[in-house]
Amino acid sequence: MSHMEGANVRCSGRVRTAMADVLARVIDIAAGESVGPSVLEIVNALVGALGVSVALNARDEDEVAYRETLISALGEYVTHLPDYQKIEIMKFIMAKVPKVQIGEEDQRLLQNMLLKSLLMVGSKYRTVQLSTTFPLSFLGPLLMLSKEDDPELRLLVHSILHTLLDRHDNREKLGGPALKFEGITRESVSRSDLLFIRKTGPELFSHTFLSLECQNNGLRNMNAVWKTGALLMIELLCDDTLGDFLRLLVSLQDAALVHSSPSGASGDGGVTRIHLHVLAVSLLALLAHLLPALQGYADKVSRIHVLLGFSFSIIVHSLLFNINYWYACINRGLSSVNSFRSLHTRDLETRNNSMPSESCSAY
User: Fold this and answer.
1) Residue extents of the structural domains in the chain
2) What angle, 0 to 180 degrees and rounded to 10, lies between the N-to-C axes of helices 267-290 and 219-236?
3) Rounded to whole angstroms, how far apart are CA atoms 84 and 92?
4) How many Å apart are CA 250 and CA 127, to the nearest integer?
5) pTM exceeding 0.70
6) What is the largest CA-CA distance in the chain?
7) In angstroms, rounded to a whole number, what is the distance separating the alpha carbons of residues 120 and 49?
8) Are 222 and 275 a contacting pair, CB within 8 Å?
9) SS3 sequence of 285-316
10) Among residues 214, 64, 226, which one has the least CA distance to residue 234?
């Protein structure tokens, strides 16, 4: 490592990449001997090497390969450390992420590299208790980055959240917004998780919603936010938190109405509106999948509309129209939901018979 640090300026990117590769192959030796402050010293040296590389302001392939190899070396190092040290390393790296002003491209790149390093450490960590994984000193700054102007940076933030939230290996089963979900694994929400969501829930939900309001969101950003919401729902949905998730769905519905454009589905406003509707409907379907009291009703609503051939917008509005009813019923208890589901399904069938059929083949 000392040899590589000394070569940071005088050697080419290709030579430094070779040094970093050797380091990545032997650094597990250091992990077995590291205790206390020496752990952070090695992490600090790797992070410092990344900072020096970024300061060179070089974007050639060799320099990019050098940075990626340093991140791989960090991953190899933390693989052999206990989980409590991985948490300290994630907090340490987060404290190094700079605040970026407009035009500071070198600092923006450093942000990106440090978040990639954080994602690498997170991928080697196994979450047990969310309160342990997300101390406020780590979660707060991470959520603030979810509102940054750079869409790629926001993707990294949500990838980190996905990695740390997913305790039951559901990420691969959540490929994107859908109406049907299979193979979802979860367990009862623990008292520790309830305390965590009561303490951090408002901040988690508000930043999940606010990250959707960024003007340069692409489809990947929208899907990343959806997956964050879906994982939160899988890990934390229970009777005590149901109202919080319904409020999030109502917020998505309201945001979709705000983004309506005069021409309907045309223009950026129309595209954003459709994306928001899709996210809300899919999260609603997931909620119903996880909560049997609502699953049958949601299935019946979507089946009626699809079989009758109505347009996507009608499907969306019919499902979302009932979120507010569900939320009101939840506040009176699940028995009210069951009564409402039976009554409103009959009303829905009657209303459908009087509506014109439209093609939904595009959906």
Assistant:
1) 1-125
2) 20
3) 13
4) 30
5) yes
6) 78
7) 16
8) yes
9) HHHHHHCHHHHHHHHHHHHHHHHHCCCHHHHH
10) 226
Least confident of 16-20, 294-298, 313-317: 313-317
DSSP string, 194-205: HHHHHHHHHHHH
Of the ranges 206-210, 213-217, 234-238, the best mean pLDDT one = 234-238
- Residues contacting residue 205 through CB under 8 Å, at least 6 positions apart: 244, 247, 248
For residues 26-64, b (16+ Cβ closer than 10 Å) or e, as one string?
A: ebeebbeebeeeebbebbeebbebbeebbeeeeeeeebe
Tokens of 312: 């996507």
30-55 pLDDT per residue, tens: 776 666 677 888 899 999 999 999 98
User: How far is it, in rounded angstroms, from Cα 49 to Cα 100?
Assistant: 20
pLDDT digits over 163-202, tens only? 999 999 999 999 889 888 999 999 999 999 999 999 999 9
Spatial distance between the Cα atoms of 1 and 301, rounded to a whole number of angstroms: 61
